Amino acid sequence: MSILLRVVVYLFMFVVLWFGSGLIISAVEKASKILKISTFALSFFVLGLLTSIPELAVGVTSVVENNPQIFVGNLLGGVVVIFLLIIPVLAIFGNGINLSHHMDNKGLLAAMIVCVAPSLLVADKRVGVFEAVLMILLYISTLYIVQRKQNLIERIETIQNSLKVDRKTHVLNGLKILVGLILVFFSSEYIVRETIAFSVIVKVSPFLLGIVVLSLGTNLPEFFLALRGIKQNKKDVAFGDYIGSASANTLVFGGLVFLNGGTVTLENNFLQSLIFILIALVCFYFFARSKNTISRKEGIVLVMIYVCFITLEFLAASKG
């Protein structure tokens, strides 16, 4: 394939990604109204897990190729991307995000803990079975805490009745979500693969490749959901997906440790990355707690922190 054709296909995949994310948002919005549950809840519990499939795919590949540092860097970098870039973009161009009707303080704190857990557990450069089990249990605990705010367990009977009454509509919505996810998955997978090829050419280290390049690429579905959410004024879908996806990354991390034989040993000194991850989550938590919102100004501050993170990572790589 010629370079020009590769570039054209590469750009076309962004169009496919945009179209697929639009299908997902419209279907989730319609399904939440029929089921009488919030779009945030449906996005958190369903989209959050499904849009973590690219991270899982990259993780499985890195394990098979005996290079676990790639999936570790990708998942840790994903936390930074979601909380310092994607959510801030939603706040900046969507005129802020109101959190009061999405999550209470317990739910928000639980989500922050489950998101930061992998970073803290790999601080000694080794992750074993105990840490993997702990990450999985933290994710399950977060699901329980968040569902209490949404009263999902108490409303299971109502949801089941709704599914029985209007099966055709639910099937069509399910198909739209499935088609959207397939388009999003394959287009983002192609974009990530081409981005990796470019990174290999410029000789980027595996850990830097994961924490900067792949973390951006595998979070393209979330980023395009943000753009679609802003355009259609349906930010709840996007925000629920982000918190759910960031939390699901911890579940993926724990699963990949088991897939890697029950242990992962790292060579890179990523203290700098760990500091930024902590800064990202602490700033996000306190901004969210201040007035139960992430304002446009706070979004700009978070993006500036992300720019500093990227700059320092590349400077550290160039010195290494």
TrEMBL record:
Membrane topology, record value: Multi-pass membrane protein
BP-aspect Gene Ontology terms: intracellular calcium ion homeostasis
InterPro entries: K/Na/Ca-exchanger, NaCa_Exmemb, NCX_ion-bd_dom_sf
Transmembrane segments: 6-28, 40-64, 70-93, 129-146, 171-192, 204-227, 239-258, 270-288, 300-317
Taxonomic superkingdom: Bacteria
Domain Sodium/calcium exchanger membrane region: residue ranges: 8-145, 177-312
Designated name of the protein: Na+/Ca+ antiporter, CaCA family
